[in-house]
């Protein structure tokens, strides 16, 4: 995969996440261009875009760089497991959310180091 797709720049972390999670850059572009919603991300200045496809939700975290270009920091999909509601699934993945927050904080610190 290339680090640029249309008007998005993908970090190596984001490309690894795409590959590991069976997502494409086109999937990310669709979420970015036509999200069902968005909210502030954990990384300073980032935005989490999300789009629902039935019971599956794709989420993309992106941030503008110093040139005003959108950089995709990470992406993933969430889907309730068999016999679980979305709320039960989110409770079951609390440990994953902690790890996600920890990774995003590390990325935030790295971003600040590269800015200076």
Which range best describes the helical content: under 10%, 10-25%, 25-40%, 40-55%, 55-70% or over 70%?
A: 40-55%
- Whole-number average pLDDT? 80
Strand order of the largest sheet: 1-2-6-5-4-3
Helix and strand pattern: EEHHEEEEHH
Protein name: DUF4258 domain-containing protein
Organism: Candidatus Shapirobacteria bacterium CG10_big_fil_rev_8_21_14_0_10_48_15
Account of the protein in words:
Strand 5 (56-64) and strand 6 (70-78) form a beta hairpin. The chain is built from four helices and six strands. It has one domain. The chain has a six-stranded mixed beta sheet. The termini are far apart. The radius of gyration is 14 Å and the shape is globular. It has 116 residues and is α+β, with helices and mostly antiparallel strands. It comes from Candidatus Shapirobacteria bacterium CG10_big_fil_rev_8_21_14_0_10_48_15. This is DUF4258 domain-containing protein.
Write the layout of secondary structure elements.
Layout: E1 4-5, E2 8-10, H1 12-21, H2 25-33, E3 37-40, E4 47-53, E5 56-64, E6 70-78, H3 86-92, H4 94-115
